[in-house]
Design goal:
Layout (H helix, E strand, L loop, with lengths): L3 E6 L4 E6 L7 H10 L6 E5 L5 H9 L4 E6 L2 H13 L6 E5 L14 E6 L15 H7 L6 H11 E12 L3 H10 L2 E10 L6 E10 L6 E2 L3 E2 L9 H6 L3
Parallel strand pairs: 3-4, 3-6, 4-5, 6-7, 8-10, 8-11
Antiparallel strand pairs: 1-2, 7-9, 8-9
Helix pairs in contact: 1-2
Amino acid sequence: MQAMTSDSYFNGQIRIRQNQSGYRFSIDAVLLAYYARPHPGDRVLDLGTGCGIIPLIMAYRNPTIIVYGIEVQKELSELANFNIKDNRMEERITIVCKDMKLLRSEMISGQVDLVVCNPPFRKSHAGRINPDHQRAVARHEIQATLSDVIVTARRMLRPAGRFVTIYTAERTAELLTQMRSDRIEPKIVRTIHSSRLSEAKLIIVEGVKGGRPGTKIESPLILCDEAGNYTQEVKQMFEA
């Protein structure tokens, strides 16, 4: 059994256990949970939920939503279930151990209003594959490709439902093309930069199932200031 670490966020309101040497969530998850902005009463689906951090943050901030977290790796799904119970969120968050390609709406009592996903950034054959299987699956398209993610999102969303994802900037064209091809119209794009003078490493994109053409490019999100500290905008994402 892998060694675990225990961390707390939002002034101790959320507790998270993670594998010490396996998959661990990054700031990507915090950014996505913040920018998804579910509406009151929404049913939300998180594809590739890992340890359950995104459902926990979203449910904590939005007390009327219901969240389903899908995780194909059994060990991670069990860890996510532990975290949900440890934070007493069992009535609002459900973890399903399932390959997203096999997921159907009837498995979670119908279509959802919002799908979020922090998908693997790299193709299965691109770069060195991490020897740790959990990290490899999180970073490379081993279990699910970008196309699998978007096709699943379209299948699970209600008409006019929203899809929000954070992705590597170098594959922006591929992401937007795939979304439009699968009838999820990209509506909002925001680039993410480590510092004010650095190039974009990540993007956040929001799309609408069956939406009309028309994309808004928002101002860049800068993660760190000149001193290397999180900017005020990012700090707010970690506040209760």
